[in-house]
Amino acid sequence: MSAAAAPQLIPATILTGFLGAGKTTLLKRVLAEAHGQKIAVIENEFGEENIDNEILVSDTNEQIIQMSNGCICCTIREDLRTTLNDLAARHRKGELQFDRVIIETTGVADPGPVAQTFFIDDEIAESYVLDAILTLVDAKHADSQLDSRQEARRQIGFADQIFISKSELCEPAAVDALIHRIKHMNPRAPQRKVHFGEVPISEVLDLRGFNLNAKLDIDPEFLQPEGHGHGHDHKHEHHHDCGHDHAHGEHCDHDHHHHAHGEHCAHPHHHHHDDDVKSFVYRADRAFNPAKLEDFLGAIVQVYGPKMLRYKGVLNMKGSERKVIFQGVHQLMGSDLGPKWGPGEKRGSKMVFIGIDLPREVLEQGLDGCLV
């Protein structure tokens, strides 16, 4: 079948976030506002803050409810895959009209398995494309939630886009410190302060955050070298550890009990949280040996997959005139050929890994060993 004849894939957005961060507000808007898009909202209904009491008629037996603005909402109690396949089948037959899907996970959920559904299941991959994972963060309670709940930290690590709500209720210095903290956990997700009454729907959807594009967007501040020479062959970005790599950060332990009051905001560039979700960037100028790299990455995801949240790279492979783009969630990796290297373009590889207590040295040494 030619590409032109292939049916248009339905974009899917995974919406995750802490309790009280505004997911319900956002979904209510999607389901009620005249935004001109027909959206199917799938709610994992074992939730704490169910949307249905307010908008949906709760005593109906119909799982799928049509909204006045053309959206549909369905609550699922069983398997997500079944529901997605059912929706896609009804969409193909013309029984249901919708342009996209938003899946809300509950406040405590790990978005990983939901994201993996789009990779593993062939039937789903033929109907849907995962557009992005959005994580909503409640600025007022984020520090304490991140300190105490690993699932909150995981949701940050998974995100393609982070929306910070309720920032107007906090001191600007505390919000800046939060943004800085989150950036260390996930430097590839843009962060945005929002009021969910006002953010345009177009800025929430169609972000294409998850696709295999040849851009590896990493926050530029994260990549600034601090006194690093750029001459050597494979540069590891150690510099952003200014105090968040607590094995070595003696100066960090005194601050642990105060963050609610924001004393640490006077020097926001020092990071005083020993978060287990961390990120690091690997760069190399020399090309990778494709077979070695594949073996190494395969072995790594077998061992560390559960702790690897998101990873992505734009790679310079020996023997390839084109960039190779790879990315993954947990144990699942996908790769694709990107555009050709430009005639004058400096070839190099850049990878970002986001995970829970990942063994950085093991990864760096292993990757170094795969270079030509």
Automatic annotation (TrEMBL):
Residues 277-371 form the CobW C-terminal domain. Residues 239-255 have a biased composition (Basic and acidic residues). The lineage of its organism: Bacteria, Pseudomonadati, Pseudomonadota, Betaproteobacteria, Burkholderiales. Keywords: Chaperone, Hydrolase, Nucleotide-binding. Residues 256-272 have a biased composition (Basic residues). Zinc chaperone that directly transfers zinc cofactor to target proteins, thereby activating them. Zinc is transferred from the CXCC motif in the GTPase domain to the zinc binding site in target proteins in a process requiring GTP hydrolysis. Gene3D superfamilies: CobW-like, C-terminal domain, P-loop containing nucleotide triphosphate hydrolases. GO terms for cellular component: cytoplasm. It catalyses: GTP + H2O = GDP + phosphate + H(+). InterPro entries: CobW-likC_sf, CobW-like_C, CobW/HypB/UreG_nucleotide-bd, P-loop_NTPase, Zinc-reg_GTPase_activator. Belongs to the SIMIBI class G3E GTPase family. ZNG1 subfamily. PANTHER family: COBW DOMAIN-CONTAINING PROTEIN, COBW-RELATED. This is G3E family GTPase. Residues 225-273 are annotated as: Disordered. GO terms for molecular function: hydrolase activity; nucleotide binding.
